[in-house]
Structure formats: C-alpha cells, structure tokens
Amino acid sequence: MAGYVEVAKVSGAVYAKVVGLGNFNNAGPLREYVETALNNGIRGVVIDLGQCTGLDSTFMGTLIGFRDYEVSGDQKQCVTIVNATPITLRAMTSLGLPKMCHVKSDHVDPPATNLERLREGWQDRRGRTKLVYEAHKHLVKNDKENEARFAPFLAALVKEAREHQQDLC
Questions:
Q1: Pair type for strands 116-117 and 4-10
Q2: Which residues, 6 or more positions from 32, have their beta carbon under 8 angstroms from its beta carbon?
Q3: What is the pLDDT of residues 119-167, one digit of tens each?
C-alpha cells in the first residue's frame, strides 16, 4: 500500500492520520497543509501513526521541520506523535525523533471530525528535490548522529540540483 494522509484542523492543532506508508510522496502535500495552518496561527501538530505501515527518512525529517518552522516570534511548534506502532517507533528511534518531538505511549482516539484526504505525488521535480533536501537537513541539524548517515546523500542532492540548475535554498 503506497500511503496517504488525512487531515483536519482541531482545537488549535492540525491532526494528520497517516494510512499506509509515510513517505516523500505524501510528505510534500502534508507539509503544504501544515505550513499554511502554522502561518494562520496553529501551533500544534498531531501525527497519528495507528494505521501507518512504515516511515521513510524524508517523512520523518518533514515532521521535525514542523517543529522548527519559523513563524513570527521565537516559539517552536509542538509536534506530537500518537499511536505509533512497533515498526514506526523503531524507524523514528533510529533517527532520533523521540528526542525531538513528543511521542505519546498511550493510545489516543482520533478526533470526531471529518478528515480531508490530501493529494499524493509531486507536481514538479524541483519541489520534490527541495523537500527531500530540507527534510534531511532537519534530521542532521537536530541529531548529529544523522550527519554520518545523510551527509553523502545531501551532497548528492546538491550535485543533482546543480546539474538540473535548481536552487535548494
């Protein structure tokens, strides 16, 4: 199952339910949705992994990017992960996410609201490359152990962007 994300704004937060894989194909639309909400005053992001079958590093880096997203003032956003499965918890732990955001160990029921399914996929190559680059930069910035893991990958992305005359900043 490829995966998709359903979202809603509830009580000052974005609630996002990941179904199937949380990966670079659905991280972009989620990022657009969450950043719009953050720009409009939302300060909390709740990610429900109860139906998630796996996470890639781009998706996880995107989640950390929500916490670090700059809006007016110095306040960081609160990113809370709920209903993590053993598979998703293992993936998050491997990249240090439990040190960077709040992972609730108790089961959390989803809010009683209608969810909107976000589109999947990419509109353009530059947007995809930029998202992947920025997500991995967040992982490296927030946990130095990730530098050894991702430094060669980041260098390759920069090289690819230059070859296609793209700006990643």
A1: antiparallel
A2: none
A3: 987 667 778 888 999 999 999 999 999 999 999 999 988 888 787 666 6
pLDDT digits (tens, 9 = 90+) for 59-105: 999 999 999 888 776 667 789 999 999 999 999 999 999 999 999 98
Domains by residue range for the chain, with CATH: 4-121 (3.30.750.24)
**Whole-prediction pTM:** 0.91
**Where do the H-state alpha helices sit in the chain?**
24-39, 57-68, 86-94, 97-100, 125-142, 145-163
Task: Find out whether 44 and 8 touch, Cβ atoms under 8 Å.
Answer: no
Q: What CA–CA distance (Å, rounded) separates 130 from 116?
A: 25
| CA 143 – CA 37 distance, rounded (Å) | 26
Structure tokens at 93: 């732990």
CA 113-115-118 angle, 5° bins: 165
C-alpha 79 chain-centroid distance = 10
Tokens standing for residue 104: 């609730």
